[in-house]
Structures are given as C-alpha cells and as structure tokens.
Amino acid sequence: MRRFYSTLAIGIALAGASIAGSTETEIIVTLKQGQSIEHVNRSAGTRTADEIPGSGIYLLRTDRNATAVLEKLGRDPRVESAEENKRIRLNEPADPARTFSGLSTDTVFLLDGVTTTPFYGADVLRAYAEQPALSITKADQARRISTGAGARVAYIDTGVDPAHPALQPWLDPGFDLVAGRSVSEMDGLLMDTMYLLDADTMFLLDKRFQFLLNHSLVSLLNSGSVAADFPPAFGHGTLVAGILHVVAPEARIVPIKAFDANGYTTLFKVVEAVHLAADLQVDVLNMSFSTQEASKTLRNAISKAAAAGVDVIASAGNDGEEANETYPAAWPEVIGVAATDFNDRIAPFSNYGKSVSLAAPGAFVVSTVPGGKYAAAWGTSFSAPIVSGAVALLESYGGFGHSSGPLVITTAEPIDALNPSYKNLLGSGRLDIQRAVEGRR
Prior knowledge:
This protein has 441 residues and is of the alpha/beta class. It folds into two domains: 4-13 and 91-439, Rossmann fold (3-Layer(aba) Sandwich); 17-85, Alpha-Beta Plaits, CATH 3.30.70. 27% of the residues lie in helices and 21% in strands. It has 13 helices and 19 strands. The strands form five sheets. It has a seven-stranded parallel β-sheet with strand order 11-12-10-14-15-16-17, with helices on both faces. Strands 4-5-3-6 form a four-stranded antiparallel β-sheet. Strand 4 and strand 5 form a beta hairpin. Helix 8 packs parallel to helix 11 (380-399) and helix 9 packs parallel to helix 10. Mean pLDDT is 84; it is low at 1-18, 101-108 and 199-228.
C-alpha cells in the first residue's frame, strides 16, 4: 500500500566558512580567453583541484591566507573573476502549518494515501494526479493541447528515485556531481534507513502537523507512524521531479545531482551543473533553491545557458519577506517564482518583491518521493517546477528554439486585488498554463 506523508520545503543559504573537512581554501577562478591556469597557479600559490571543461573555469586550492590570495587573483590580468567556493546548505523555511487550516471537503481527498488512478502509463496516487495546484493553474486543460512531448527539462537538486513507477519511464540519464556514482537519492543511505522506505507505515517528518489533522484524517494516514531518521534534504529532488512530470507528463526529465542528502553542495558544483544543462541543450532548467550571494561565476553560467536557449526558472525563497536580492531568481535571465495557496493568496512563507516574475501554487503540493511513495510539500521550491513544467508544455507546442519563459509571465492571472499588501510584489500574477499554451497558437 502506498502511503502519504508530509515534508517541509527547503531553501538554501551560503555558509561563509571554507569547505568542511579541509584546512585549505577553495577558490573559483575564471580565466580570460587564451590564458594558462599553470601560470596563474605559480603566481598565486594555488593548485588546480577541478575544472569545467571548455569554460575557462577552475577550482583552485590554497593553504595560504584566503583574503590575500583572492586579492592577488583579482589583480592578475589573466583572471576574469575569482571568488571563494562557499559551501551551500539547505535549510527549513518559515513554518507552513498555517496553510493546512481551512481545507475544504473538496480537498480532503489530498490526505487519501490509498486511491490510485491511471496517469501516462502508471497507476499513481489520485491526490497527485488530480490535485488543486493543477486545476488552479489549468494544467489539465493545457495538457489537451500539449503534453510536453519532445521537451527536455533538467533540474539541479538532490537527485531522484530512478525506480519510482510514476517517473522511471520519463527519466533521461543525468549526472551525479556529489559522488560520481548515481543520481539516485537512495545512494549512500544506511541500511537501517533504507528499510523504512519499504515499511507499510506513514512518516510525519514534522510533528507540528499532527495536531492539525482530525481523527478521521489521521486514520487515513496511519497514525501509528514511526520516527524516520532520514537525512534532512532526502526526497527534495524526487519531489521536484514529480511536479515536473505531473505538469508536463511526456517531457523528458534530466536530474543533475549537486546537493547531497544532508542538503549540502558547493558553489562550484552548482556552476558546473548549469554548464552541464547548457551543454545538454535542454529546453528548461529548474533551480529550486535560493541564496543571498550574488555570485558572478554563477550569474555568467546562467547567462550562457539563457543565451543558448534554455529557459531558467528558480524559486524566490522561503523566508516570508521582501527579498529583491535573492539569487538566482532575482537575475533578469531567470524567471523567479513566488508561492501562493489554494485561494491565490501569497503563502505565508513565500518571499516576494520586485524581482519576482510570477507566482504558482506552493502550499500543499502533492508529489513523488523515494520508495514509490507520495508526499505533500510546501515552499517556493515546489512552485518553481510547476512553472518549469508549463514552459516545457510551451516548448513542446511549437516553441523549440524560442524562449517560452516570457509567455508564462505575460499570460499570468493578476492576483494583486487578492493580495493588496503585496501589490506589484508578486510579479505578473499567478501562473495560468492554459492561457499560456493557447497564447502560443
């Protein structure tokens, strides 16, 4: 029996410390065309640890004073840019529990972890295939025109469950930048954790939600839950993949695993992941994370991808505040996505601001999780792939070779009247997939 459990959405922050477990500092250097990294290393007292082939971007290490080395590299005429390779960690957003209140009888079925329905070659949870996020954005109507066939969507995250019945037929080979082994989220899990994925139980990963469920709903979820000791970011990537699939069911999905199960990565790995997506010539790149650090190297990588015809979509962040310097969402090459609830009102945890392009449902979004299961998720991390899926539908429907991102923005449903305190801070409105696809005609 498939079970249904709750999980929290996740944002990211950059840690200022050097890479954990190392006495050296790592620095990302971009060389000017035709320059030699060997000459730069000799001058700066650094050594090459890694590189992104064909990009002129190198990962250097040094045991010298980091500030002095960065200053020296900044003065080197052979160097385009230099910045510390900071570690990125995933963290929890503001408590989304308030969005649980007010569930109508029409949406109580979301808590049914049993009933299945056919969906593009697999029997999936009904609460996944028929969820309010799809009806609100008119994805069902849009899929009568386009299913995403021929489009390719890459996403940078924690990987995927490659054996999930809903996803397996639609996954293309991806890349593991964490350990170089597998894009599977189960890779590296301890055996005493693995068995929990097969157990006939339900896991409430956040105990705060338990008191919000009445007795009948708890019984649907199997109230005899156990405390699952999963890593903090486990399942995030599979959640994102499932949302991409439920919106654009015949699009191909390319997982790029850059975050580990504990929610850590480095700036260099994210930059490498963006370059991989551009080199693969995917149509859409989803980035369900955000940071306050305006990395020049990452900005340049995204600009390269956008120039190659990749529509880049990113989450606006989960701090519940005005955030006009949250990246990559704030960069003009990127579609920044805020989160709304079932009533087109801003979700209490969602960031907002002038840099937001549009909004999409991000409260109680149902998606796939490892072990062939399903979960409810909250956060702009899960609003972004709804928009990415919509862009994939547009690409499939006569948009190949043309940027489809602007169309999802210009066809959005205005929601400022429902959010008077956030006027002009939620972009053009809430995503309307049907209107966007029909606008392609």
